[in-house]
Amino acid sequence: MTTGSTAPSDPLTGSTCDTAATTETTAVATDLTTSVVICAYTVLRWPDLVHAVASVFSQSRPPDQIVVVIDHSPALLQRALDEWAHAGVSVVASRYDRGLSGARNTGIEVATGDVVLFLDDDAVAERDWVDRLVSAYADPRVLGVGGRVRPRWAGGRPAWFPREFDWVVGCSYRGLPVARSEIRNFIGANMSFRRDALTAAGGFRHELGRIGTVPSGCEETELCIRVHGQSVDGVLLYEPAAEVWHSVPSQRGTWSYFRSRCYAEGVSKAQVSGMVGARRGLSSELRYVLFTITSGIVTSLGRVALGRGSGVARALAMVVGLAATSRGYLAGRARSLRLSAALPDLLTATRRERLALLARVGAVPAAIVLWLASLGRIDLGQMGDLGLVPLLPITFWAALAVLLVSFCVQVLRPRSRTSVLVGHVLLLIAILHATPSILYGTLRYSWAWKHVGVTDFFMRHAGVDRSLRELSAYQYWPGFFTTNAMISKLAGLRGAEGYAIWAPPFFNALLLGPLFLIFSTFTRDRRLVWAAIGIFFLGSWVGQDYFAPQACCYFLFLTIVAVCIRYVRSSRPTSRALVPDTSVAPDRGQPLVLGAVVLMMAAIVPTHQLTPLVLIGALVVLALLCRQRRLALPLLLLVGITAAWNLLFAWPWLSQNLADIGSSFGQLGANANSGFINLATASRGQVLVAQMDRLLSVAVVALALVGFARHFRTRREVALPLLALTPVPLLFTSDYDGEMIFRIYLFGLPFAAFYAAAAFLPRETAGRNWWARVSLPLVMLLLVPGFAFSYYGKEEVNYFSPQELQAAELVYGIAPEGSQIVSATSDFPWGFTNYEMYDYERFALEDPRTRQQVLADPVGTLGDMMRLQSHHHSYLVLTRAQRFDVEMTGIMPPGSLDHIAQALLRSPDFVLLYQSPDAVVITRVGPTTEASS
Amino acid sequence: MTRAGGRRSPARTMPALRGSWGRVRVTPRWRLALACSGWLTWLGQLLPPGFPLRVLVVFGFVLICPGLALTLLLPLREAVVRWVLAVALSVSLAILLNTVLTIASNDSLPLRLAVLATITTVAAVAAPLDAARGAMAAPGKADP
After folding, report:
1. Does A326 touch chain B (CB under 8 A)?
2. Reduced to 3 DSSP states, what percent helix, strand and coil does chain A have, rounded to the nearest 5?
3. pTM: predicted TM-score of the whole model, two decimal places
4. Which band of pLDDT confidence, cut at 50, 70 and 90, is reported for residue A350?
5. Would you tell me which residues 526-565 of chain A have a C-beta closer than 8 angstroms to some C-beta of chain B?
6. Which helix (H) or strand (E) is A869 found in, with range?
7. For A248-267, what is each residue's pLDDT tens digit?
8. DSSP of A378-407, one letter per residue?
C-alpha cells in the first residue's frame, strides 16, 4: 500500500483511508512469519482462554507460533501447560511484575515471528483474522496493524450503553473508520506489530496497563505513539476487516463499571500525555469529543423524537462518561505532576526542590496574573518625561522577574520541554511589547501612523505616484504598503490602523522561529540557544518592530540567513565551516531551497532600502569568508536584483537624494553620532533614557565579547562573529536619517546575543553549572530596567491620547484638498491621511534660526508660513506628543508650543477650531473665494 | 563552567525539537484544505466588511497558505523550518505580486487573490504525495 492512493474517508475523524487497499484487502500475500501472543491472568476465564486459543488454531492462515503468557497464576500456568504444551503452543510465565504490560513484553521476547499479533484471552478471532492483518504488511512502511473488536455481550447490550463508548469494554466504537486507514493507536485486544519495531521501541511500559482486574489502560496507546515516532515514514493501519469478538461479561454493563472505567481511562490518558506530550497523547481525543460524542448525543436525542426513550439514557451516558473521563484526566495530570520522576515529591522535597517545583509549575501563571493585574493600575494621564517607566507598578516588574527566573530555570534544566520554553518567550514578548498596545487603545508611534497613511494611499490608488514630494521614498519601495493595502481591502477594513496596533508583539513573535534556527545551527546546546533568544529580546530596544517595512524585512533577513546556513551549504566540510547539523536536508532539493531564498530576497528589494545591503554583506560573509560557495549564486542574484531595482525603478529618487548620500559617505563619526540626541539640550529624563539605552547596548556587546572569547576557544566558527560585524561598514555610507547606528545594532544583535549567552554557557557539557545558574538570571534581570528605560522611556512622544486623535480626525475631516497642515513635528496621529492632497510644514524641524523666529514672533512667522496666497486653507495642529518631542530633544524650550498657541489665539488672523488639554487646532482666518475656487 | 565532580546529566543536544514539534503530517485531506484555502478566502469576501471571521480568514490565508503550499515542494525535514518558511514565503509572494501589479497600475483585488489562490492550489497539488519529502507523519487518529 502506498499513500499515493489515499483519499479522505471519514469526515468526522480526519483519518486517511486507502481506497485501493479496501478493495483488495487480502489480495497481497506475504511471506512474513507470525506469532500470536495471548496473555491470561486468572483461571476464572479459562473457558474464554480455550476459545481464544482454539480460534487461533482454526485460522485460514495458521500462525507460525502461538504464545500463551500466564501472568503470575501458577494454577493457570500448570493447566495451560497440560492443555497445550504438546500442541506446539509456547506456554510461558510472565518474566516481569504482575501486569498486562509485563506479560505482553514476555510474549514479545518469546515470539520468533516477523509479525507479533496480540489477542486478548477473552476474545475470539474470526477465521481470516491473521490473514487480513498480515496482508497489510505488504507495504514495508507499515509498522503495525490493528483490527476491529466487536463486543459479545453476555447478557445483551444494555439499552443505555452508547456505541460511541464501546471502548469502555475494550471494543471498537462508533466513530472509528470503516475502511483501512492510518491510525494513531490500536485496541489491545486485536493488534499486531512488526517484531523489530516492538523490540526497537522497548516494548510496553510497565507503569501503564491493566493489573489484574484494576481497570487501567492506554499502554497500547503509548506504545503505538512510541513505535510510530521511531520511523520517518512508518504508518500504523486500522484494518476493520480483521475482526475479533470480545467477550463482555454482564458486570461490565453496569453504570458503576462504566463510570469507573471512564475515570480510569482519563487517568491513563493523563499518564500517556505526561510521557509523550499532551499534543500527541490527546491528538485525536479532541476530535472524538467534538464530532463523535457531539453527533452521538444529537443522534440519541433525535431518536427520542422518534419515540425511542432509550436515546435519553444514551445521551446521558455519554455526558456522564465524558465527565468521568475528564475528571480522571485532571486527577491523573495532578498525580503525574506530583509523582513524575522529573519532579520531587512535595511531601519529601527539600525547600530548594519545592522552590524548583514552584518555579516550574506556577511561575508562568503567576507572571500572567501579575502582568494582567498591572495593566489596570497604569494611569496614562500621569505620563511624564520617562514615559511609561515610572507608571509601571511593582506587579509589572514582579511579573517580569518571575518569568525570567522561571525561564532561566527552564533553560538550564536538562529536559525542559520546547513548548514550555516557547511559552516563556512568547509571554516575555507579550509583556514587553503588547503592554502599550493594550494600554493605549490607539496606534503607538507617529511613524506607524505615517505608514498607515501610506498604506491608505495605496488602498486608494492603482499605482505609484512619482510626482509626490511628501514621503516620496515610499513610492519607490512600495512592497510593504501595497501588500497591506491588499490585506486591508480583502478583509474589508477601512485601513491598517486597527491591526497595526499589534505589530510589535506580532513581529517580535515572528522572529522566534528564525532566531531558533540560526542559533541551533551553531550549537547543539539547547541551553545556549534559548538563553541567546532571551537575551536577544531583552536587548532589542531599538524599536524597529512597529508597523514598518523594516520589521517585515528584518524577519525575512533572518529567515534567509537561517535557511542559507542550514540548507544551502557545501556538503564538503571545511575547517571553518558551520557546526555540523544532523537535520540538514538532502542535496537533491537544494536548488528548490535556493529558489525560495531568491524569492525572499526579491521581496526585500522593493520593500526596504537598507536591508538588501545588509543581506548582501551577510551573503558575502557566508559565501566568501566561510567558503559556502553555493551561496555565490544567490549573492550574485541579490546584487543583480538590487542594482536593477535601484537603477531602473528607484533611480529618480536616488538621483535626487544623491547629494545627501554623497555628503555623508565616509563620514564615519558624523553618521554614528547623528542619531543620538544632544545630551546638553535634552530633558533630564531623556538624558537618563539615552544613558540607559547606551548602557544596555554596551552591556550586550561586552557580554558578546566575553562570550566570544570563551566560546571561540572550543568552537572556532567564524560565521557568527562576521555576521555580527556585517552591518558595521554601513556607517561609512550614510547616517540614514540619524538611525544608522541603531540599525547596525539591530542587524548585529542576533549574532551578538548568541555570544552574550555563550558568556554563561561556553561549553556544551552538561552538569551543574553554578556560574550559569547564578549569573544568567541575574544578568537577565539586570537587562530588564535597561530595556524598559530604552524602549518605554520615549513613550511620552509615542503615545497619542484620544484627544489628539480627535484633533487629527477633525482636521482631516474639514481640510479640503490642497490645504496646508502645519505642526511642530510630525508627532500626531493620522499625520499622513490622504497625504497626497496636502502640503506639510513642521516648523520645529526647520533650522535653529527659523525656530527662534517662530518663538520670537509666532504670529508673524507662522502667519507668513500659513499665508493664504499659497494655500486656500491652512491648519496648525499642536499636540501633547509634539510638545514632549520638542522639549525632550531640547530643540525648543519647555512651554514653547503653549506660548505659540496662546499668541496665535490672541491674533485676529487665527481662529481656534479645537482645543483640549492634549491638542489644539488653529486655522488661518478666512480662505478667499478666489483661492478656494 | 562545569564543576568537577558535579552531577552529570544527559547531553543537552538538540538537533531537532522535542515532542511533536518536529513532525508535520501532510494528509490528503490536509492538502485538499490547503489547495482550497485561497478559494475559500474568495468565498469569505461575501461576509460583511471587517467581519472578524473574514479578517481572520484573510490574514490566515495571505500570511500562511501560499508559502505553506510552496514548502511542500521543498526538502525540509523540520517542522519549525517549514512554518517559518511558510510565513516568509507567503509574505514574499504577496509583496512581489502587489509590487508588480502596483507598478503596472493594476488595482484589481480579485486578480491578486486569484493569483495567490492559484499558486497555493498548484503547489499543494503538485507537491509529492509522500508528505513533502521527509515530513514525518504524525498520529492522526486514535481510540479515545
Report:
1. no
2. 60, 10, 30
3. 0.67
4. low
5. 526-527, 529, 552, 555-556, 559-560, 562-563
6. none
7. 888 888 888 888 888 888 87
8. --GGG-BTTBTGGGS-HHHHHHHHHHHHHH
